[in-house]
């Protein structure tokens, strides 16, 4: 048994939360509401192609050499400036910025920095499945903080902190939360930092959707209230430019950045040069904010199309009403198991993919919800996919009397 030689963190008997997140189906009429895919039509293909060519032409053979782990200079300066506006920290300096291989590596590095086996950490319940998968590797003891309409329940969290002062990390997605779409209120952002100062823990503020607001006004980041360097702000180019280059970035106290850089060196030695240089040249010659504007305009109409389809085919269902981001969150009758339905009905019969709720809970114990993505599918697929979802629920739910009239 080779598995006997594996480290305990691999847990050979336990399926990764990410396996099956993007099930491959071979049906031609497959519709995916699964992963957080951006709209392909809006990738700036020509501009990125040109930027890649410029990166190679300017550097010549050197473009293919090893480079500094800190990444290209102009890109770093761009991020210093972006941190001032996007994160709202006017004093940010170069030694507080770090490039990562996507936001995902940022999460994994922070977990590696802070978590010994069994260490206590708190997460929103539900929370981003990829973060849980990264934390799982370090075998923490999880504590759940429930979600309210204005973000994590901080009254409940404070009780937890009193009972478990050993909690050292809180992971949050405050803007258009993955998976529920909820945005944390300003009051809670401030209070969260006060709690971190009082109970001595670090906050990982993960915000890849922060730029993608379709309704209302942007709120100050949690990091902007940070007084003791306890907040690590994490962002990414994946949702606003392309996920293919695997480029994320974070803002943290210089001591944290130094320690994370040391850990990153052992993982991959450097930020991949050509993808980061390509993004650098793209940013020098194009207006990223203008591009983000076009994403916002399109995604808002897609979100509205999905809401309209839900009104039509799933009237009365409990659905989130996010102000931005990529996802809607559905809550179904207690007793419905959306994981079972995915494999037994949605994929084989409806040719439809979504992400079942259990993936988003640290203890995999809530089965009656699902996350659906509206940015990747076409308008036709949004309408057709929600109709298929309704069909599936008619066949498998006590709510069928309502839905059956709609399809
Ligand atoms: C909340 C959140 N964090 C991090 C990531 C990872 O993104 P990437 O590694 O592509 O930057 C995602 C991707 O969906 C996400 O939703």
UniProtKB/TrEMBL annotation:
<dbReference type="GO" id="GO:1901605">
    <property type="term" value="P:alpha-amino acid metabolic process"/>
</dbReference>
<keyword id="KW-0808">Transferase</keyword>
<dbReference type="GO" id="GO:0030170">
    <property type="term" value="F:pyridoxal phosphate binding"/>
</dbReference>
<dbReference type="InterPro" id="IPR015422">
    <property type="entry name" value="PyrdxlP-dep_Trfase_small"/>
</dbReference>
<keyword id="KW-0032">Aminotransferase</keyword>
<feature type="domain" description="Aminotransferase class I/classII large">
    <location>
        <begin position="42"/>
        <end position="389"/>
    </location>
</feature>
<dbReference type="InterPro" id="IPR015424">
    <property type="entry name" value="PyrdxlP-dep_Trfase"/>
</dbReference>
<protein>
    <submittedName>
        <fullName>Aminotransferase</fullName>
    </submittedName>
</protein>
<keyword id="KW-0663">Pyridoxal phosphate</keyword>
<dbReference type="InterPro" id="IPR050859">
    <property type="entry name" value="Class-I_PLP-dep_aminotransf"/>
</dbReference>
<dbReference type="Pfam" id="PF00155">
    <property type="entry name" value="Aminotran_1_2"/>
</dbReference>
<dbReference type="InterPro" id="IPR004839">
    <property type="entry name" value="Aminotransferase_I/II_large"/>
</dbReference>
<dbReference type="GO" id="GO:0008483">
    <property type="term" value="F:transaminase activity"/>
</dbReference>
<comment type="similarity">
    <text>Belongs to the class-I pyridoxal-phosphate-dependent aminotransferase family.</text>
</comment>
<comment type="subunit">
    <text>Homodimer.</text>
</comment>
<dbReference type="InterPro" id="IPR015421">
    <property type="entry name" value="PyrdxlP-dep_Trfase_major"/>
</dbReference>
């Amino acid at each position: 048994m080779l598995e006997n030689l594996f480290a305990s963190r691999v847990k050979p008997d336990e399926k990764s939360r990410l396996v099956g997140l993007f099930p491959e189906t071979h049906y031609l009429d497959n519709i995916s509401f699964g992963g957080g895919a951006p709209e392909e039509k809006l990738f700036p293909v020509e501009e990125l192609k040109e930027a890649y060519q410029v990166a190679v032409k300017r550097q010549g053979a050197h473009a293919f050499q090893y480079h500094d782990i800190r990444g290209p200079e102009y890109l770093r300066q761009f991020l210093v400036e972006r941190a001032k506006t996007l994160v709202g920290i006017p004093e940010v300096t170069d030694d507080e910025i770090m490039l990562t291989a996507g936001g995902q590596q940022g999460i994994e590095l922070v977990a590696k920095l802070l978590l010994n086996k069994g260490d206590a950490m708190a997460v929103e319940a539900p929370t981003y499945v990829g973060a849980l998968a990264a934390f799982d590797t370090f075998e923490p003891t999880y504590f759940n903080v429930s979600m309210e309409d204005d973000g994590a329940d901080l009254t409940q969290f404070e009780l937890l902190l009193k009972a478990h002062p050993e909690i050292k990390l809180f992971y949050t997605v405050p803007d258009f939360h993955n998976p529920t779409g909820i945005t944390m209120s300003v009051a809670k952002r401030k209070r969260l930092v006060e709690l971190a100062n009082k109970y001595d823990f670090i906050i990982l503020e993960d915000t890849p959707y922060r730029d993608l607001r379709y309704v209302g006004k942007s709120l100050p980041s949690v990091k902007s209230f940070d007084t003791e360097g306890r907040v690590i702000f994490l962002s990414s180019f994946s949702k606003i430019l392309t996920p293919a280059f695997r480029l994320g970035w974070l803002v943290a106290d210089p001591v944290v950045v130094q320690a994370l850089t040391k850990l990153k060196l052992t993982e991959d030695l450097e930020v991949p040069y050509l993808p980061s240089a390509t993004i650098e040249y793209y940013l020098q010659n194009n207006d990223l904010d203008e591009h983000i504007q076009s994403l916002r305009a399109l995604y808002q109409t897609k979100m509205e199309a999905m809401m309209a389809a839900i009104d039509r085919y799933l009237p009365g269902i409990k659905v989130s009403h996010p102000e931005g981001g990529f996802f809607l969150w559905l809550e179904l009758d207690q007793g419905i198991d959306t994981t079972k339905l995915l494999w037994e009905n949605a994929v084989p019969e409806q040719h439809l993919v979504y992400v079942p709720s259990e993936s988003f809970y640290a203890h995999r114990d809530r089965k009656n919800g699902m996350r659906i993505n509206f940015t990747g599918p076409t308008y036709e697929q949004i309408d057709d996919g929600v109709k298929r979802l309704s069909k599936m629920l008619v066949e498998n739910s006590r709510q069928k009397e309502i839905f059956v009239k709609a399809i």
